[in-house]
Design brief:
It contains 7 helices and 15 strands. It is 28% helix and 28% strand. A 6-stranded mixed β-sheet has the order 1-15-2-3-4-5, covered by helices on one side. A 6-stranded mixed β-sheet has the order 6-7-8-9-14-13. It has a 3-stranded antiparallel β-sheet with strand order 10-11-12, with no helix packed on it. The chain is of the alpha/beta class. The longest helix is centred in the first third of the chain and has 26 residues. The protein has a single domain, classed as Purple Acid Phosphatase, chain A, domain 2, CATH 3.60.21.
Protein backbone atom coordinates (compact mmCIF):
# COMPACT_ATOMS: atom_id res chain seq x y z
CA UNK A 1 0.00 0.00 0.00
CA UNK A 2 1.56 3.31 -1.06
CA UNK A 3 1.50 6.56 0.88
CA UNK A 4 -1.52 7.96 -0.99
CA UNK A 5 -3.59 4.83 -0.33
CA UNK A 6 -2.66 4.80 3.36
CA UNK A 7 -3.62 8.46 3.65
CA UNK A 8 -6.98 7.79 1.98
CA UNK A 9 -7.63 4.78 4.21
CA UNK A 10 -6.77 6.73 7.36
CA UNK A 11 -9.12 9.51 6.25
CA UNK A 12 -12.03 7.06 5.99
CA UNK A 13 -11.19 5.47 9.32
CA UNK A 14 -11.17 8.88 11.01
CA UNK A 15 -14.47 9.87 9.37
CA UNK A 16 -16.02 6.58 10.47
CA UNK A 17 -14.88 7.08 14.06
CA UNK A 18 -16.22 10.63 14.06
CA UNK A 19 -19.56 9.36 12.76
CA UNK A 20 -19.70 6.74 15.52
CA UNK A 21 -18.96 9.37 18.15
CA UNK A 22 -21.68 11.64 16.77
CA UNK A 23 -24.25 8.85 16.75
CA UNK A 24 -23.23 7.81 20.26
CA UNK A 25 -23.47 11.36 21.56
CA UNK A 26 -26.81 11.92 19.84
CA UNK A 27 -28.37 8.76 21.21
CA UNK A 28 -27.02 9.40 24.72
CA UNK A 29 -29.41 12.33 25.09
CA UNK A 30 -32.65 11.31 26.88
CA UNK A 31 -36.02 12.05 25.30
CA UNK A 32 -39.74 11.92 26.12
CA UNK A 33 -41.65 9.43 23.97
CA UNK A 34 -45.41 9.99 23.60
CA UNK A 35 -47.70 7.05 22.80
CA UNK A 36 -51.47 7.16 22.35
CA UNK A 37 -53.35 3.95 23.16
CA UNK A 38 -57.11 3.75 22.43
CA UNK A 39 -58.07 1.10 25.00
CA UNK A 40 -61.28 2.32 26.62
CA UNK A 41 -64.53 0.97 25.22
CA UNK A 42 -66.78 3.75 26.54
CA UNK A 43 -66.50 7.53 26.45
CA UNK A 44 -64.91 9.16 29.48
CA UNK A 45 -61.73 10.73 30.77
CA UNK A 46 -58.36 10.03 29.23
CA UNK A 47 -55.62 8.66 31.49
CA UNK A 48 -51.96 9.68 31.29
CA UNK A 49 -49.26 7.33 32.58
CA UNK A 50 -45.54 8.08 32.92
CA UNK A 51 -43.57 4.85 32.45
CA UNK A 52 -40.04 4.87 33.86
CA UNK A 53 -37.85 1.79 33.64
CA UNK A 54 -34.23 0.74 34.04
CA UNK A 55 -33.02 3.89 35.75
CA UNK A 56 -30.25 1.82 37.39
CA UNK A 57 -29.74 4.68 39.83
CA UNK A 58 -28.17 6.73 37.03
CA UNK A 59 -27.56 10.45 37.38
CA UNK A 60 -30.02 12.90 35.80
CA UNK A 61 -28.86 16.20 37.26
CA UNK A 62 -28.64 17.44 40.82
CA UNK A 63 -31.50 15.90 42.79
CA UNK A 64 -32.48 14.14 39.53
CA UNK A 65 -33.91 17.49 38.41
CA UNK A 66 -33.86 16.75 34.67
CA UNK A 67 -35.92 13.62 35.12
CA UNK A 68 -38.32 15.19 37.61
CA UNK A 69 -38.82 18.19 35.31
CA UNK A 70 -39.63 15.92 32.36
CA UNK A 71 -42.30 14.09 34.31
CA UNK A 72 -43.70 17.25 35.92
CA UNK A 73 -44.06 18.88 32.51
CA UNK A 74 -46.31 16.03 31.35
CA UNK A 75 -48.50 16.02 34.50
CA UNK A 76 -49.34 12.30 34.45
CA UNK A 77 -52.18 10.83 36.47
CA UNK A 78 -49.82 8.15 37.77
CA UNK A 79 -46.21 6.98 37.49
CA UNK A 80 -45.12 3.38 36.85
CA UNK A 81 -41.61 2.28 37.85
CA UNK A 82 -41.14 -1.00 36.00
CA UNK A 83 -38.01 -2.49 37.53
CA UNK A 84 -34.25 -1.90 37.76
CA UNK A 85 -34.83 1.50 39.30
CA UNK A 86 -32.10 0.59 41.79
CA UNK A 87 -28.84 -0.99 40.63
CA UNK A 88 -26.61 -3.73 41.99
CA UNK A 89 -23.42 -1.66 41.59
CA UNK A 90 -24.23 2.04 41.87
CA UNK A 91 -25.29 3.59 45.19
CA UNK A 92 -29.04 3.83 45.84
CA UNK A 93 -29.05 7.63 46.14
CA UNK A 94 -30.31 8.58 42.67
CA UNK A 95 -32.98 5.87 42.74
CA UNK A 96 -34.15 7.02 46.17
CA UNK A 97 -34.32 10.68 45.17
CA UNK A 98 -36.29 9.78 42.04
CA UNK A 99 -38.82 7.62 43.86
CA UNK A 100 -39.31 10.12 46.70
CA UNK A 101 -39.76 13.16 44.48
CA UNK A 102 -42.17 11.41 42.12
CA UNK A 103 -44.20 9.80 44.91
CA UNK A 104 -44.62 13.20 46.58
CA UNK A 105 -46.47 14.43 43.50
CA UNK A 106 -48.11 11.44 41.81
CA UNK A 107 -49.51 8.01 42.66
CA UNK A 108 -46.39 5.93 42.05
CA UNK A 109 -46.17 2.15 41.61
CA UNK A 110 -42.98 0.09 41.72
CA UNK A 111 -41.95 -3.45 40.80
CA UNK A 112 -38.53 -5.05 41.04
CA UNK A 113 -36.16 -5.88 38.20
CA UNK A 114 -33.34 -8.38 37.97
CA UNK A 115 -30.72 -5.92 39.22
CA UNK A 116 -32.54 -5.44 42.50
CA UNK A 117 -32.28 -9.20 43.01
CA UNK A 118 -28.68 -9.33 41.79
CA UNK A 119 -27.83 -6.83 44.52
CA UNK A 120 -28.91 -9.36 47.17
CA UNK A 121 -30.99 -6.56 48.74
CA UNK A 122 -34.27 -6.80 46.84
CA UNK A 123 -36.45 -6.99 49.96
CA UNK A 124 -34.62 -4.06 51.50
CA UNK A 125 -35.06 -2.05 48.30
CA UNK A 126 -38.79 -2.81 48.23
CA UNK A 127 -39.12 -1.67 51.83
CA UNK A 128 -37.15 1.45 50.99
CA UNK A 129 -39.35 2.25 47.97
CA UNK A 130 -42.44 1.89 50.15
CA UNK A 131 -40.96 4.16 52.82
CA UNK A 132 -40.28 6.75 50.10
CA UNK A 133 -43.95 6.74 49.13
CA UNK A 134 -44.24 4.28 46.22
CA UNK A 135 -46.73 1.43 46.29
CA UNK A 136 -44.77 -1.78 45.86
CA UNK A 137 -46.52 -4.47 43.82
CA UNK A 138 -45.39 -8.09 44.15
CA UNK A 139 -48.15 -10.46 43.16
CA UNK A 140 -50.91 -8.07 44.11
CA UNK A 141 -53.20 -5.45 42.61
CA UNK A 142 -54.57 -2.07 43.61
CA UNK A 143 -57.41 0.02 42.23
CA UNK A 144 -56.93 3.66 41.24
CA UNK A 145 -59.69 6.03 40.14
CA UNK A 146 -58.75 8.65 37.55
CA UNK A 147 -61.76 10.82 36.82
CA UNK A 148 -64.44 8.52 35.44
CA UNK A 149 -61.99 5.64 34.95
CA UNK A 150 -61.08 2.80 37.27
CA UNK A 151 -57.69 1.17 36.82
CA UNK A 152 -56.59 -2.14 38.34
CA UNK A 153 -52.82 -1.87 38.59
CA UNK A 154 -51.18 -5.25 39.12
CA UNK A 155 -47.49 -5.98 39.54
CA UNK A 156 -45.07 -8.87 39.87
CA UNK A 157 -41.54 -9.30 41.09
CA UNK A 158 -38.78 -10.04 38.63
CA UNK A 159 -38.49 -13.86 38.32
CA UNK A 160 -34.69 -13.94 38.84
CA UNK A 161 -34.80 -15.59 42.26
CA UNK A 162 -37.98 -17.65 42.00
CA UNK A 163 -39.24 -20.71 40.20
CA UNK A 164 -41.32 -20.15 37.09
CA UNK A 165 -44.37 -21.63 38.84
CA UNK A 166 -43.97 -19.23 41.78
CA UNK A 167 -43.67 -16.23 39.46
CA UNK A 168 -46.72 -17.29 37.45
CA UNK A 169 -48.59 -17.72 40.72
CA UNK A 170 -47.87 -14.05 41.46
CA UNK A 171 -49.44 -13.08 38.13
CA UNK A 172 -52.41 -15.35 38.72
CA UNK A 173 -53.16 -14.03 42.20
CA UNK A 174 -52.80 -10.44 40.99
CA UNK A 175 -55.15 -11.02 38.07
CA UNK A 176 -57.72 -12.61 40.35
CA UNK A 177 -57.98 -9.28 42.18
CA UNK A 178 -59.03 -7.38 39.04
CA UNK A 179 -62.61 -6.55 38.17
CA UNK A 180 -64.63 -6.64 34.97
CA UNK A 181 -65.06 -3.17 33.53
CA UNK A 182 -61.81 -1.83 35.02
CA UNK A 183 -58.73 -1.23 32.87
CA UNK A 184 -56.47 -4.14 33.80
CA UNK A 185 -52.78 -3.20 33.84
CA UNK A 186 -49.89 -5.57 34.55
CA UNK A 187 -46.52 -4.08 35.49
CA UNK A 188 -43.65 -6.51 34.91
CA UNK A 189 -39.97 -5.96 34.24
CA UNK A 190 -39.71 -8.68 31.56
CA UNK A 191 -41.02 -8.13 28.01
CA UNK A 192 -39.99 -11.56 26.73
CA UNK A 193 -42.58 -13.39 28.87
CA UNK A 194 -45.31 -12.80 26.30
CA UNK A 195 -46.36 -16.46 26.33
CA UNK A 196 -47.33 -16.04 30.01
CA UNK A 197 -49.03 -12.64 29.72
CA UNK A 198 -51.24 -13.91 26.90
CA UNK A 199 -52.81 -16.45 29.24
CA UNK A 200 -54.60 -13.59 31.00
CA UNK A 201 -56.96 -10.85 29.95
CA UNK A 202 -54.84 -7.84 30.85
CA UNK A 203 -55.60 -4.77 28.75
CA UNK A 204 -52.09 -3.39 29.09
CA UNK A 205 -48.69 -4.84 30.03
CA UNK A 206 -45.85 -2.43 30.88
CA UNK A 207 -42.21 -3.61 30.78
CA UNK A 208 -38.57 -2.61 30.31
CA UNK A 209 -35.41 -4.73 30.77
CA UNK A 210 -34.33 -4.97 27.11
CA UNK A 211 -32.61 -1.55 26.88
CA UNK A 212 -33.83 -1.63 23.24
CA UNK A 213 -31.13 -4.18 22.52
CA UNK A 214 -28.45 -1.54 23.25
CA UNK A 215 -27.85 -1.15 19.48
CA UNK A 216 -31.35 -0.53 18.10
CA UNK A 217 -31.65 -1.41 14.43
CA UNK A 218 -33.33 1.49 12.60
CA UNK A 219 -36.51 0.81 10.61
CA UNK A 220 -36.75 -2.78 11.89
CA UNK A 221 -37.35 -1.82 15.55
CA UNK A 222 -35.27 -4.76 16.70
CA UNK A 223 -32.35 -4.85 19.11
CA UNK A 224 -28.99 -6.25 18.21
CA UNK A 225 -28.90 -8.15 21.50
CA UNK A 226 -31.19 -8.01 24.53
CA UNK A 227 -30.99 -9.95 27.79
CA UNK A 228 -33.15 -13.09 27.79
CA UNK A 229 -34.01 -12.55 24.10
CA UNK A 230 -30.62 -12.93 22.44
CA UNK A 231 -29.68 -11.53 19.03
CA UNK A 232 -32.20 -9.63 16.87
CA UNK A 233 -34.44 -9.24 19.91
CA UNK A 234 -38.08 -8.61 19.10
CA UNK A 235 -39.62 -7.00 22.20
CA UNK A 236 -37.38 -4.00 22.77
CA UNK A 237 -39.17 -0.70 22.14
CA UNK A 238 -42.68 0.63 21.76
CA UNK A 239 -46.10 -0.96 21.30
CA UNK A 240 -46.75 -4.69 20.70
CA UNK A 241 -50.27 -6.06 20.15
CA UNK A 242 -50.68 -9.38 21.96
CA UNK A 243 -53.34 -12.04 21.59
CA UNK A 244 -56.91 -10.95 22.18
CA UNK A 245 -57.31 -7.31 23.12
CA UNK A 246 -54.06 -7.03 25.09
CA UNK A 247 -51.27 -4.55 24.34
CA UNK A 248 -47.69 -4.51 25.66
CA UNK A 249 -45.56 -1.37 25.86
CA UNK A 250 -41.80 -1.75 26.30
CA UNK A 251 -39.64 1.19 27.30
CA UNK A 252 -36.01 1.58 26.25
CA UNK A 253 -35.34 2.74 29.80
CA UNK A 254 -32.95 5.31 31.25
CA UNK A 255 -29.71 3.38 31.84
CA UNK A 256 -26.61 5.33 30.85
CA UNK A 257 -23.45 5.13 32.92
CA UNK A 258 -24.18 1.55 34.01
CA UNK A 259 -24.22 0.15 30.48
CA UNK A 260 -21.17 -1.87 29.38
CA UNK A 261 -21.25 -0.31 25.90
CA UNK A 262 -22.70 2.84 24.29
CA UNK A 263 -26.31 3.05 23.13
CA UNK A 264 -26.74 3.49 19.36
CA UNK A 265 -29.96 4.69 17.67
CA UNK A 266 -31.38 4.26 21.14
CA UNK A 267 -32.18 7.33 23.23
CA UNK A 268 -32.81 6.77 26.93
CA UNK A 269 -36.45 7.68 27.41
CA UNK A 270 -39.37 8.55 29.62
CA UNK A 271 -42.53 7.11 28.05
CA UNK A 272 -45.81 9.02 28.32
CA UNK A 273 -48.89 6.92 27.59
CA UNK A 274 -52.20 8.61 26.84
CA UNK A 275 -54.96 6.03 27.16
CA UNK A 276 -58.01 7.16 25.21
CA UNK A 277 -61.37 5.87 23.99
CA UNK A 278 -61.49 3.56 20.98
CA UNK A 279 -62.92 5.05 17.78
Amino acid sequence: MDKRQRKKRNKYVILFLILLLLVWGWTWKPVTEHIILPLFEEEGDNVRIALITDLHSCYYGKNQQWLINRVMKEQPDLVILSGDIYDNRLPDKNAQITIKRLAERFPTYYVTGNHEFWSGRAEQMKENAAELGAQVLAGDCTMLSVGSRKLDICGVDDPTDMASSEWQQQIRQAYEQTKEGHLRILVSHRPEKVFVYQQYDFDLVLAGHAHAGQFRIPFLNKGLFAPDQGFMAEYVNGVYPLQGESTMVVSRGLARETTPMPRFFNHPEVVILDITTKD
